[in-house]
TrEMBL record:
The keyword Translocase does not apply. It catalyses: Hydrolysis of DNA containing ring-opened 7-methylguanine residues, releasing 2,6-diamino-4-hydroxy-5-(N-methyl)formamidopyrimidine; 2'-deoxyribonucleotide-(2'-deoxyribose 5'-phosphate)-2'-deoxyribonucleotide-DNA = a 3'-end 2'-deoxyribonucleotide-(2,3-dehydro-2,3-deoxyribose 5'-phosphate)-DNA + a 5'-end 5'-phospho-2'-deoxyribonucleoside-DNA + H(+). InterPro entries: FPG_cat, FPG_N, H2TH_FPG, Ribosomal_uS13-like_H2TH, Znf_DNA_glyclase/AP_lyase, Znf_FPG/IleRS. Coiled coil: none annotated. Keywords: DNA damage, DNA repair, DNA-binding, Glycosidase, Hydrolase, Lyase, Metal-binding, Multifunctional enzyme, Zinc, Zinc-finger. It holds the Pfam family zf-FPG_IleRS. Belongs to the FPG family. Gene3D superfamilies: 1.10.8.50, MutM-like, N-terminal. Residues 235-269 form the FPG-type domain. This is Formamidopyrimidine-DNA glycosylase. Residues 2-112 form the Formamidopyrimidine-DNA glycosylase catalytic domain. One of its GO terms (molecular function) is class I DNA-(apurinic or apyrimidinic site) endonuclease activity.
Length: 269
């Protein structure tokens, strides 16, 4: 499932490609991917300019000039492609937004969705999300207050969207490795220094992943060399049996709360 870095990468690239452009056409191939009648969706979206694209947690919000908002959550298996009809991947498209000869294809939205809301409705949809971990106002003191009296494991707490927004399975493992903490450690067992290190690792890993373009397997457009660069730069995730870059130990795969989990027993304590 795309996490914060993937959606931030999409936001940046799509802003460059379609920000300020007008949606010339709409095709709905799967009605379950939207939340209103297809004709209502088309009426409210077609011929509208995209005024801004915003990311909140693992969501993207496409703000339209009429005050409407398209709220996207790709969920497991969802992705996007921007290009011409000839460039379109040979995949089933659930929703298509057209911009002249170029189209934004929403693919794999079996669990994901592109919902139409007012700005206030979209705000209500996202109100239960925790703080943005890369927000300039999210300080070490903010984090220490957040984890105070928390008893859950490092891994399960990091992926809790009501605790912090945007972190999922992959980056929780990367963060725990960088902080040199076993993902099964309990938060209330951590020292204050370890909690501060965890905060610093959250911000470092997410910023690093954004720098490399996240982990998506498919490019957003033909010639896209940014998307998916983190796949070649993971520390532990997906590297079971390989050597740890820090201590030379062996990375193992385990399960924590039914989630596949990767860590190094040699240097994560």
């Amino acid at each position: 499932m795309p996490e914060l870095p993937e959606m931030e990468t999409y936001k940046t690239l799509l802003t460059q490609k379609i920000g300020g452009n007008t949606i010339a056409g709409v095709i709905i191939n799967r009605e379950k991917s939207i939340n209103v009648e297809p004709e209502t969706f088309k009426h409210m979206v077609q011929n509208q300019k995209i005024e801004a694209i915003e990311r909140r947690a693992k969501h993207l919000l496409f703000h339209l000039e009429n005050g409407s908002c398209l709220l996207l959550h790709l969920m497991l298996g969802g992705w996007m492609f921007y290009g011409t009809t000839e460039e379109k991947p040979d995949r089933t498209v659930q929703v298509q937004l057209s911009f002249g000869d170029y189209h934004l294809y929403f693919i794999g939205l079996r669990l994901g969705y592109l919902h139409l809301f007012t700005k206030e409705e979209a705000k209500q949809e996202l109100m239960d999300l925790g703080p943005e971990p890369l927000d300039v106002n999210f300080s070490p003191n903010s984090f220490l207050k957040l984890v105070k009296n928390r008893r859950g494991r490092v891994k399960t707490t990091l992926v809790d969207q009501e605790f912090l927004s945007g972190i999922g399975n992959r980056y929780s493992d990367e963060i725990a490795w960088h902080a040199q903490l076993l993902p099964k450690r309990k938060l209330d067992d951590l020292t204050d220094n370890e909690k501060v290190q965890l905060y610093q690792s959250i911000r470092f890993i997410l910023q690093r992943a954004i720098q490399y373009g996240g982990y998506m397997d498919q490019p957003l457009f033909v010639g896209d060399t940014k998307t998916g660069g983190y796949n070649r730069n993971t520390y532990v995730y997906g590297r079971d049996g390989e050597t740890c870059n820090r201590c030379g130990g062996t990375i193992i795969r385990d399960e924590i709360s039914s989630r596949k989990t990767f860590y190094c027993q040699g240097c994560q304590r």
